[in-house]
Amino acid sequence: MILHPVGFIVWWFVIGLLVGSFLNVAIHRLPLEGESVNRPRRSRCPNCRTELTWKDNVPVLSWVVLRGRCRTCSWGIPWRYPFVELLTASLWGFLAWRSGPEAWPLVAVQSLVFAGLIVATFVDFDCFEIPDEVSIGGMIVAPILSLLVPSLHSQTRLALELSDGGSVDRVGALLGSLAGLVVGGGVLWGIGWLGTKIFRRDAMGFGDVKLLAAGGGFVGPGGALLALFLGTCVASVAGLLNMVRFLCLSRARARSRGSRKPLRKAVRVARIAGRYLPFGPYLGIGIGIVLVAWNHVMELWNELLF
Ligand SMILES: [Zn+2]
């Protein structure tokens, strides 16, 4: 039975809301020792540990009804909770709209990848690490899912070359996935190795290496390189904005104290402070863009170059 295209989008959006609610739990619990996504069984308020009833656990709506406060202890529930739910639902709805109900296996796999990227992004922002459940888990399931849903690699030239005929066959998709794993992990590991040799400090976290390896398993070797390039561009802009933010903060503080700290010193402090940004979220953005818009990125690339 195939759903009507609009019904499919709405249905997938609602499932995305529920999954987003689960991702919030994963983001909160994965970095913690002794807790896992299914233990303790029920969701609790992170502040007063009161178990939540279903009424206080409805995605987005509960947050709005409770005006962002816990019912028991009125702890301010971060806006990140409804944001993650809406983000997951919007991305899932977008994937459903883009491929339609006939391609539901592709929609399901791409939705799963986006769910993993959302968890990796927010855990990395919180604790500067990417959970192995996401990165190593992704590396394991990428070849299996490529074998089951070969259309995942229909944009990858390598997979097309390996297959005979126009569409990607299972073997081509599997080889494309494995090549993506090796190239994605290898190139970032190599950059990190060079960085340690040249700058004599850890330039690259191993979590990022595993994340791009997993991503490469879904987008193939060329896609992994493109994702790294896009991620680096976005990270550079974010790093620059972060530095400007620190600069403005320190200038404002100096002005309120009436001190006349030279601008040069403030710039130096901002450069050091601005450097500490996790790379995982930007790598995740790069992988996400390649996953859904590989063709568009390449078209834009060709237009800009030629
Ligand atoms: Zn509470």
Q: Which properties best describe this structure?
A:
306 residues, mainly alpha, 71% helix, globular, binds zinc ion
Give the tally of structural domains.
2
What does the radius of gyration come to? 22 Å
Going by helix content, strand content and strand pairing, the class is mainly alpha
User: How helical, in percent, are the residues?
Assistant: over 70%
Mean pLDDT: 87
Q: Count the strands?
A: 0
What ions, cofactors and ligands are bound? Answer: zinc ion
The ordered string of helix (H) and strand (E) elements is HHHHHHHHHH
Low-pLDDT sequence parts:
none
- Give the terminus-to-terminus CA distance: 46 Å
Biggest sheet record: none
Helix count, DSSP H or I runs of 4 or more residues: 10
Report strand %.
under 5%
Shape: globular
Concise description?
With 306 residues, this protein is an all-alpha fold. The protein has helices at residues 5-29, 61-65, 80-99, 104-127, 132-148, 157-162, 170-199, 206-257, 263-275, 280-305.
Characterize the structure shown:
By secondary structure, the chain is mostly helical. The protein folds into 2 domains: 1-103, no CATH class; 130-306, no CATH class. The chain has 10 helices and no strands. The chain has helices spanning 5-29, 61-65, 80-99, 104-127, 132-148, 157-162, 170-199, 206-257, 263-275, 280-305. Helix 3 runs antiparallel to helix 4. It is globular. Bound molecules: zinc ion. Residues 45, 47-48, 50, 70, 72-73, 75 line the site of zinc ion. Zinc ion (ZN) binds next to loops.
